[in-house]
Predict the structure.
Amino acid sequence: MIRHLLALAIFGAAPAAAAAPSAAGSLDTVAIVDTVDADTLPAGTVQRFWFRAGDSQLGQPWLVPVIVVRGAKPGPRLLVTAGIHGDELNGIAVIHELARLEPATLAGTLVLVPGLNTPGLLQSEREWTPDNSRAQPNLNRVMPGEVGGRGIDDYAGRLWSRLLRRNADAAVDLHTQSRGTAYVMYAFASTPRTRRMAELVAPDIIKLDRGEKGTLENELTRAGVPAITLELGRPEVFDDTMIARAGAGLRNLMREMRMLDGAITPLPPETFLSNDITVVRAPVAGFARLSVMLGAAVAQGDRIAVIVDAFGREVAQVTAPRAGRVNTIATDPRRGRGDMLVRIVSWSDDPKCAAGC
Ligand SMILES: [Zn+2]
């Protein structure tokens, strides 16, 4: 099997590598590959690979873990990815749990990538940081990348063309908020199909959104692979509640895709649909004490936070500029002027906002 896969591998842009098989071959019995073609793997098996996403400036490979669960029966391919931002960990545990699905119960293929941003994960940094934060580019803004390009473009291009795009009929990219902040369980969707996918996963809030260029979600959707971004709480932790909710939601999606038997189960809580977002920022620097909980419904004028100075003296009160639901909070009380305190999502009836303001 390993030999077969290596024979299929396509090697990098460098001419020297083009003729030679991957010299390492495997790492602790897991094959190192330059391309994954899930359709060529035998049905009814679970396969693990180290995908080579280019080389570091030390001439050593950047390795990305891949698990392919090939169902015993034919069906669609669902790609689930995590850790494109290196401090966002909950999705990794969701994928580790999905990888234990018994192939005999599965129709189709799960292509699982528990950690896309190897340098970011090493340093617990949101950005792609192979060079100790010199440039701090965002791997989730440079898709589809460019094989043979420099640095992050080559890394993204290899992921896109040799692993992600070619193995997906639908996709879910798992995230959390960044350091110092937290989300509810929250999904972005940009089309009717991706909205339906998000509803099946049953987050607290869905945000209809036109999407940002270069994100995995939007580039896949644009390329004909419906994809959602699913945010799972806070960074740098494994949160068992979030992990279990995401696992249950993804199973619902797989049932709708006829990858798993069984009826779609309604999952609590009821999802709040939004198409607009307001960022509430600290008007002055200081220590913020929030008055609202994550996920809370707020009315316009409700107190959001009190900001105190280094001596604990109140320097500002902040109120909600509009009604809606709190989808993000600052968990780190230290706030610079203009830093985010909370975000409030809401529904706008403006026709221009039908698919996201
Ligand atoms: Zn993220």
Notes: Residues 85, 88, 175 surround zinc ion (CB under 6 Å). The chain is about 20% helix and 30% strand.
